[in-house]
């Protein structure tokens, strides 16, 4: 039985009203030392859907869980077939205006680091440095037996060779990089083993039901400790993996700003929630601070 991830939460306090005034964010950026925490909402303008928004994928799609992936051969076949199809689109995604603005803030020295809950690598593609990938990256694959890492592009080539003619047609892309397919469409898709030891390959991402590696969590806690403020971009903060850092910042008396159209689980810890679109808002903030943002063609 597949367990559905958390879709929402029950507010325990009066919700923080959203504002259309981004000046609190501008003030934080002027001060510097801002730690960015980004979520799936930042990548929607790049064509990658989010999990929990109004049209979020969790309303129609249950992501793979760690337990199911590691215990079921058929589940792995279903995952890799869907992921192989999704990668054709996911792997071509490009940074949007929001990613490029964050990179521009970093180049100007206004950010201490970026923690991202996304697995798409778009922050780095836009030019951001000091990025902690909280939930890993779909650009890498790891063997669960020998621990060897390899590139997703190499695995995609192997899967293409082993599944010549696999083309179930258009399918809906999901935030975790796979696509919606029926078991009939998956068919007898051939899964590739580790080229080193023949073991089971897994994308180097944290599945639902899997814990974020402790050293990564500790690194993020250190970043919160040394930051001046925390800026949340496009995350509902529904799950604890990101919310804990917002709580840590608030407990330490550090300002938390959120840019998200919808209310979030972290609103009660925030000084302000700016309810505006991310790309245009971050670009306008950069313009107001006289910070040039790279043109899309640069990437």
Can you describe this structure?
With 299 residues, the protein is α/β, with parallel strands linked by helices. Helices cover 33% and strands 14% of the residues. The protein contains 10 helices and 9 strands. It has helices at 23-31, 66-71, 73-90, 97-107, 122-126, 152-162, 183-186, 214-226, 240-251, 278-288, and strands at residues 34-38, 111-116, 131-133, 136-143, 149-151, 201-205, 229-233, 256-259, 272-274. The strands form 2 sheets. It has a 6-stranded parallel beta sheet, with helices on both faces. α4 runs parallel beside α10. The longest helix is centred in the first third of the chain and has 18 residues, at 73-90. 43% of the residues are buried. Mean pLDDT is 89; it is low at 1-5 and 55-60.
Summary keywords:
elongated, 33% helix, alpha/beta, 6-stranded parallel sheet, 3-stranded antiparallel sheet
Query: Which bin fits the share of residues in helices?
Result: 25-40%
Content-based structural category: alpha/beta
Contiguous helical run count = 10
Give average pLDDT, whole number. 89
- β-sheet strand percentage: 5-15%
Which strand order do you get reading across the main beta sheet? Answer: 3-2-1-7-8-9
Task: Give the topology, please.
Blueprint: H1 23-31, E1 34-38, H2 66-71, H3 73-90, H4 97-107, E2 111-116, H5 122-126, E3 131-133, E4 136-143, E5 149-151, H6 152-162, H7 183-186, E6 201-205, H8 214-226, E7 229-233, H9 240-251, E8 256-259, E9 272-274, H10 278-288
Parallel strand pairs: 1-2, 1-7, 2-3, 7-8, 8-9
Antiparallel strand pairs: 4-5, 4-6
Helix pairs in contact: 4-10
């Amino acid at each position: 039985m597949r367990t559905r991830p958390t879709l929402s939460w029950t507010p325990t306090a009066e919700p923080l009203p959203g504002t259309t005034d981004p000046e609190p964010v501008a003030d934080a950026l002027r001060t510097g030392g801002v730690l960015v925490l980004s979520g799936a909402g930042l990548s929607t303008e790049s064509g990658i859907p989010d999990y929990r928004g109004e049209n979020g994928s969790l309303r129609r799609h249950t992501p793979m869980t760690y337990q199911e992936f590691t215990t079921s051969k058929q589940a792995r076949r279903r995952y890799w077939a869907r992921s192989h199809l999704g990668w054709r689109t996911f792997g071509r995604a490009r940074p949007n205006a929001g990613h490029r603005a964050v990179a521009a803030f970093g180049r100007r020295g206004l950010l201490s680091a970026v923690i991202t809950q996304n697995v798409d690598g778009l922050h780095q593609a836009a030019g951001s440095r000091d990025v902690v990938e909280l939930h890993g990256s779909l650009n890498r694959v790891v063997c669960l037996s020998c621990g060897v890492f390899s590139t997703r592009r190499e695995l995609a080539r192997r899967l293409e060779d082993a599944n010549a003619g696999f083309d179930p047609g258009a399918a809906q892309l999901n935030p975790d990089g796979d696509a919606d397919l029926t078991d009939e469409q998956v068919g007898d898709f051939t899964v590739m083993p580790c080229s080193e030891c023949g073991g089971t390959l897994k994308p180097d991402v944290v599945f639902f039901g899997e814990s974020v590696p402790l050293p990564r969590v500790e690194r993020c806690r250190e970043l919160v400790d040394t930051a001046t403020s925390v800026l949340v971009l496009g995350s509902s903060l529904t799950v604890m993996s990101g919310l804990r850092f917002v709580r840590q910042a608030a407990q330490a008396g550090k300002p938390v700003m959120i840019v998200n159209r919808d209310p979030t689980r972290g609103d009660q810890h925030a000084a302000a929630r700016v309810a505006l679109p991310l790309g245009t808002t971050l670009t306008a903030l950069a313009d107001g601070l006289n910070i040039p943002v790279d043109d899309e063609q640069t990437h």
